[in-house]
Amino acid sequence: PIPESQIDNNRLTRVDLRVTKGFSLGRSRKVELVGQVFNLFGTDNLGGIGSSQSSNATASTFGQIVSAQPRQQGEIAIRFLW
Prior knowledge:
Layout: E1 17-24, E2 30-38, E3 73-81
Antiparallel strand pairs: 1-2, 2-3
C-alpha cells in the first residue's frame, strides 16, 4: 500500500493582484497604467493546462503529477482608450 502522504493532489492555492491607475488626456481620451502579479505568494500549484498524471501502475511516477504551474509572474502594461 502507498501512504496517503506520498500521493500528490492538484489543490489550487493562488492569490493574484491587479493595480490600475487611469489618467484623462482630455475629451474622451484616457491612458491606464496596469500592474499585475500572479501567484503572489509563490505557492507550488501542481498540474494545470497541459499537465499529466501518470496512470500506469508500473511506472515510477504513478500517482504523481509530473508538472507544475509557474510560481510567480508579473506584468506591466499601458492601455490607451479613445
